[in-house]
Automatic annotation (TrEMBL):
This is Calmodulin. GO terms for cellular component: myosin II complex. Belongs to the centrin family. InterPro entries: CALM/Myosin/TropC-like, EF-hand-dom_pair, EF_Hand_1_Ca_BS, EF_hand_dom. Transmembrane segments: none annotated. GO terms for molecular function: calcium ion binding. It comes from the Eukaryota. PROSITE patterns: EF_HAND_1, EF_HAND_2. The keyword Zinc does not apply. Plays a fundamental role in microtubule organizing center structure and function. Component of the infraciliary lattice (ICL) and the ciliary basal bodies. Residues 6-41, 42-77, 117-147 form the EF-hand domain.
Length: 147
């Protein structure tokens, strides 16, 4: 995936706030705070796994280039987790785990109205999303609907 220049600059800015002595390193406790300031909330297990994976010198401290690896890995795991949640919802509605298959639009409308008691104009949304007018929602369409 790779980080954008904007993300790298943002990382450097926050990392520098915690590198008080200017060594270019932070410890695992500071790493947690840095990640939290950047909107990420890794579990204790995730934090230790991140450090073990990138701490090339086994110092227990993270250098900036190692921090960038941690940040990118966590970003990717968040994306993967979100994608899996979307696939799980697709499967629950009748699609297949490999994202093939489709969801019947009537079933989707019923779930949104009856189970979630939403009052949005779901028919119009589905009409806009169901590009092939098949009256079924394929995974790509489902993903757009939820985005």
């Amino acid at each position: 995936m790779g980080l954008t220049e904007e993300q790298i600059t943002h990382c450097k800015s926050i990392f520098s706030q915690f590198d008080k002595d200017g060594t270019g390193r932070i410890d695992r406790f500071e790493l947690r705070v840095v990640l939290e300031q950047m909107g990420q909330k890794p579990s204790e297990e995730e934090l230790f796994a991140m450090i073990n994976e990138v701490d090339d010198g086994n110092t227990g401290k993270i250098e900036f280039y190692e921090f960038l690896k941690v940040y990118e890995q966590h970003q990717n795991s968040e994306v993967n987790r979100d994608e899996q949640d979307m696939i799980d919802a697709f499967v629950a509605m009748g699609g297949n785990p490999d994202t093939t298959g489709s969801i019947d639009t009537d079933k989707l409308i019923n779930v949104i109205r009856q189970q979630f008691e939403m009052t949005i104009d779901i028919e119009r949304l589905i009409e806009d999303i169901d590009e092939d007018q098949s009256h079924t929602i394929e995974y790509a369409e489902f993903k757009r609907l939820l985005s």
